[in-house]
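#dry-run=false #mode=assembly
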Amino acid sequence: AQTVTQSQPEMSVQEAETVTLSCTYDTSESDYYLFWYKQPPSRQMILVIRQEAYKQQNATENRFSVNFQKAAKSFSLKISDSQLGDAAMYFCAYSPGNQFYFGTGTSLTVIP
Amino acid sequence: NAGVTQTPKFQVLKTGQSMTLQCAQDMNHNSMYWYRQDPGMGLRLIYYSASEGTTDKGEVPNGYNVSRLNKREFSLRLESAAPSQTSVYFCASSLLRRETQYFGPGTRLLVL
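#status=ok
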């Protein structure tokens, strides 16, 4: 079975500080994609960052970066210089082919 | 360029009633997906269409049917709604399988 686990239901961070959200996944595949999506209160799902499993280099998008550990099946998201607008639910997702599998999400609070 | 659109935004049904959720994308994407989102459970895939003319079951297909009407449109039908189908439904599309998914704004469905 393909599963994605986000072990932190809730996290908080002070504005301008750094926070790391954890994600692990279970797979027997060697080629797949990993994603982090953000869902603010508006409910709109927004892509934050994407990582192809065949790439060893960790993906980076401005203040967002990942720590991809393929052997450990770990895919954490680091948010640097946290801003109030970063407050949202964050979902980790895994796709080996046609289907996508999402974790249960981490609710991030940003404290002014 | 509207991206992914969904109608309706909100619907109340009585148990046993039927309805169709509509989804359309204008990005010329090949793959389309239907998810449901329930509290504490993340997003779960109901059905997907990897390309025009094909549909396949996802993780939770029971009680639903889909139609890939053309490349742009992918509808989800509830033939006999049940309270367990109360949820928020998201449609998504991607250019190719495993690629980044773009989501619609969601449909809140309440089944009484």
